[in-house]
Fold:
Amino acid sequence: MGKNRLEAFSDGVIAIIITIMVLELKVPHGAGFDVLLPLLPILGSYILSFIYVGIYWNNHHHMLHMVQQVSGRVLWANLHLLFWLSLLPFVSGWMGENHFETMPVAAYGVVLLMCAIAYAILARSLIAHHKENAALAEAIGSDRKGLISIVLYILGIGLSLLHPMLGFATYICVAIMWLIPDSRIESRLKH
Structure:
């Protein structure tokens, strides 16, 4: 089956995720910058979550650009990824509202970890469905960056139990790592 419905559905879900996150931002009462100070944790968790959703959307788009068809297995793997992404507004809000307390920061890390695992499953499902597409398999390769992310999320979860800001800082580092453009897929598309 073609990939168009999967792409359209995924784009719609991701747009809704971002909409839910932004609707959770409450407008402060007052005109001074001092009324923004209590909202900084909420805004910080929103910004990081928005960046993560953007990273997943961008990489999802590039990966699907390399294929023409999807299978039932790919559809379920994609839904698995969307499920975990859909939890980002909840854990992001929980973390921000509770000013980066231990359990919300650890839960945020668990959701990020599961997003990374789900993305890896989706990538492997696409490769398995497109055995003849050597460019896709080569572009994804061993996915060292993805594996490093999984390890860092686990580390971040553990660190958040020691001190929540250490875990949060780890999640920021992973996001920064992914903001650096990953040319694996784009370089294959130019050929």
